[in-house]
Design a protein that fits this description.
rod-shaped
């Protein structure tokens, strides 16, 4: 069951009763949700970097018209990109720790009593 369990991201209607009674149900669904959260984090990371780069391009385009504003915009864009990178790294580390803990909890749980391996 554990191999099946970690492969599922959502529990389908046919298996729901069986899975909900499983002693490792919470850990398995937690691993699935954390995997989806990693994907969302990656998308947010790249979107943040694109927005930071867009700010730099805009600052470069406006440097002759408003030199002081362009410097501020470039600085803010760089700080923003650095913050996005830092937040993404921090979240990835926390997500990996939580995922590892959920997997370890599922592996150390007693074997299901209702016919699962």
């Amino acid at each position: 069951m554990m191999k099946e369990c970690f492969g599922l991201s959502k529990v389908d209607a046919q298996k729901f009763r069986e899975c909900a009674e499983c002693p490792i149900f919470e850990q398995c669904t937690r691993v699935g949700y954390l995997g989806e959260a990693r994907i969302a984090d990656r998308l947010a990371f790249w979107l943040g970097l694109v927005l930071g780069a867009l700010g730099l391009v805009l600052a470069f385009a406006l440097r002759e018209r408003t030199p002081n504003g362009a410097i501020w915009l470039a600085g803010i864009s760089l700080v923003y990109a650095a913050c996005v990178r830092s937040a993404s790294r921090e979240y990835a580390a926390r997500n990996a720790d939580e995922s590892r803990a959920a997997r370890d909890g599922a592996e150390s749980a007693p074997a299901p009593a209702h016919g699962h391996p």
